[in-house]
Amino acid sequence: MKTSRQHADPDGRMPLMEHLRELRNRLIKAILGLVAGALVGWILFDPIWDFLKKPYTRIPADHCIGGHCDLVVHGIFDGFFIHLKVALIVGALLSSPIWLYQIWAFVAPGLYQRERRWTYIFLSAAVPLFLAGGALAYLTMDKGLQIFIGLAPGDTTVLVGVQDYLGYAQAMLLIFGLTFELPLFVVMLNIVGVLTHERIRKSRRLLLFGIFLFAAVATPSQDPFTMLALALPTVVLFEIAEVIAFVHDRRRDRAPDPYAGLSDDEASPLDLEAIDAELEKGDRAR
């Protein structure tokens, strides 16, 4: 019995139920990757926890007990949820190649064959960008904590719960990592012809303002240092994306038009190589 995948349209078109099944399969694979990464995080909890709490221990001990800052456990079940949150953070980072690929693989069937060739290039850029964003978040977490803990009155002691700190760390890592992916999506939209460099150039000021506004709203602490730490690298990445879009549009404009010089009733040239590739794909499916 032939499966539905064998009857898939070579152009990537499929009925709504097939789209839903494809989405379900992609979600299952992404979740399995997250669970596998979370198991690694659960097993290696002690060294990972020592690494995660360092930004908090680097802040000045003016408001801490005994000259050093310790996180506080408030509830009986907090120990379990601490392990679970740390495992999920590690799982999201380790499985980022898997779920990023699943996102692209779900979108790619709707693209043309020429556009699908960019899959490996986008994936090779998406994973380092996500990890670079997470690394920058880790390096700047102590600055945001220092600013707000420093606002406490001088005669008080600040007791930060482990759950609160992990929620802050998790939000920082994910927001920075995902924000660093935004310029990559600009390049993707340009490659597929949805967003031209001319449109990017005309909306440049609005986009730059939007980056700073998003950084001010999205950062958990919303302090000026963390906002600038997110906004400035994103602006640099956006400028790189704009240059790539400019080069790509110029190269596309210089390419010869296969339909130039043809009258309305004259047959257009065929891309025999592309047709052969689609026929071969259909033969393999049968």
TrEMBL record:
Q: Where in the cell is it found?
A: Cell membrane; Membrane
Keyword annotations for this protein? Cell membrane, Membrane, Protein transport, Translocation, Transmembrane, Transmembrane helix, Transport
Q: Which InterPro entries match?
A: TatC (IPR002033)
Q: Where does this chain mainly localize? A: membrane
Q: Where are the transmembrane segments?
A: 27-45, 86-108, 120-141, 171-194, 206-222, 228-247
Q: How does it sit in the membrane?
A: Multi-pass membrane protein
The record's family statement is: Belongs to the TatC family.
Q: How does it assemble?
A: The Tat system comprises two distinct complexes: a TatABC complex, containing multiple copies of TatA, TatB and TatC subunits, and a separate TatA complex, containing only TatA subunits. Substrates initially bind to the TatABC complex, which probably triggers association of the separate TatA complex to form the active translocon.
Function (record text): Part of the twin-arginine translocation (Tat) system that transports large folded proteins containing a characteristic twin-arginine motif in their signal peptide across membranes. Together with TatB, TatC is part of a receptor directly interacting with Tat signal peptides.
List the protein's name.
Sec-independent protein translocase protein TatC
User: What is the protein's species of origin?
Assistant: Actinomadura fibrosa
Recite the lineage of the species: Bacteria, Bacillati, Actinomycetota, Actinomycetes, Streptosporangiales
